[in-house]
Amino acid sequence: MTKAYIALGSNLGDARGHVLSAFDALAHLSGTRLDARSHLYLTPPWGVLEQPPFINAVARVDTTLPPHALLDALLAIERAAGRVRDGERWGPRTLDLDILHMDGVALQDERLTLPHPRIRDRAFVLMPLNDLAPDLELAGQGRVAALLASLDTTGLERLP
């Protein structure tokens, strides 16, 4: 089993419901066990600013799936939630799932880079990741808690 951290985000329709359903879907992936989930956070949009705020979270899973098979499973969960990938980056979405890190895996190809290359810039990812793994060292980026401390977290709100 390999420990993996997955970012979850939604800002269309029932965003909270989409994220909670995605946690359930992750718990039912073949060869995968949902180990922990972060708090939910209401976060301002990033990239394209003219869109609704997001609900963001992070899941920690133990999985036997190799990285690309896990990616394919996440894309299937997104499609089941109504996600259409039309090439627009950072726009509104029913569900977005990203592999942030897999223990012992360093990878860079046309489909996947691990650890995720932009974690260090994204408070909306680091805040929930910090709930689960503040001491996690991300190769080439730093420790989660230190990365989070270096960012502006204004506008991020932990939800009950």
Automatic annotation (TrEMBL):
One BP term from GO: tetrahydrofolate biosynthetic process
InterPro entries (alphabetical): Hppk, Hppk_sf
Superkingdom classification of source: Bacteria
SUPFAM superfamilies referenced in this protein's UniProt entry, alphabetically: 6-hydroxymethyl-7,8-dihydropterin pyrophosphokinase, HPPK (SSF55083)
Enzyme class: transferase
Signal sequence residues: none
Pathway stated in the Swiss-Prot or TrEMBL entry: Cofactor biosynthesis; tetrahydrofolate biosynthesis; 2-amino-4-hydroxy-6-hydroxymethyl-7,8-dihydropteridine diphosphate from 7,8-dihydroneopterin triphosphate: step 4/4
GO molecular function, one term: 2-amino-4-hydroxy-6-hydroxymethyldihydropteridine diphosphokinase activity
PANTHER family: 2-AMINO-4-HYDROXY-6-HYDROXYMETHYLDIHYDROPTERIDINE PYROPHOSPHOKINASE
Family to which this protein belongs: Belongs to the HPPK family.
Record's protein name: 2-amino-4-hydroxy-6-hydroxymethyldihydropteridine pyrophosphokinase
Native species: Dyella jiangningensis
Organism lineage: Bacteria, Pseudomonadati, Pseudomonadota, Gammaproteobacteria, Lysobacterales
